[in-house]
User: What shape does this take?
Amino acid sequence: MSGLLSALLNGLAQGAMIALVALGYTMVYGVLKLINFAHSEVFMMGAYAGFFALAGPLAGLPPLAALPLTIVAAMAASSALGVAVERVAYRPILARSGGGKAVGSRITPLVTALGASVLLQNAAVLAFGARPRSYARVPINTQLVIFVTALVVMGALHLLVSKTWMGKAMRALSTNVEAARLMGVRTSRVILFTFALGSSLAALGAVLYCLDQSQAYATMGQVIGTRAFVAAVLGGIGSIPGAVVGGILLGVVGELTKLTSYSGGQDVLTFVVLIAVLLWRPTGLFGKGGVEKV
Assistant: This one.
């Protein structure tokens, strides 16, 4: 029983961390209909930014005082990186496709996203080396912090999208970019804000993940990024509650799998769950079907 309870707690923490990364995928897709595969490498860069901040200028501070500053530094660095990726890699292509949305040619933005992911991963290897970097231990219950943080972030994003002007602008872009532009919405600013916010959430998840159970290394975004993308699709990509529920579901299923003789097949079971849900609901648990005009 204690093993099962421990697995459930670990699964909730793992799932909440995955959800923080999945929120970035679902926000960008909700606005641009673009799958930002470079988001997983932004997560990885956020982990490195947090490590160097905690090991460098913040090393002399008490751990509980250094942790919030570490998170802020990592979020700021990842936001800047996310904005740079949008400006350099995506904006020229989306501008040529018309309307600033990935609806004309879906292959070109997809290949560009994959290329940006590979570029960032190799840049991290060249800049930081292949040796994993371990965070200094902080005397807090990191699992509880991760879970509570994911719920607070989901609530804050829901309020942002439903109650603020920026949230209304994001929903307007999601519906019709040209109509939003005609109504005076500065679409470029809204897109930059979406990338910056999603990237900062990835950094938040990266720092908490490294404090709880991992090290910072150049390929860490592959596993977590894949699971986060699956979580976003599982919950209904474009849905904020769906990303959180999908992440927690994957985290719990993965940890429970470790209690069985098939512990090495965690990711296999993850995709089995995804296929089963999509066969039942093709739009995901919280996704909404719609008619696409051509």
The mean pLDDT is 84. DSSP finds eleven helices and no strands in the chain. The CA atoms of residues 52 and 70 lie 9 Å apart.
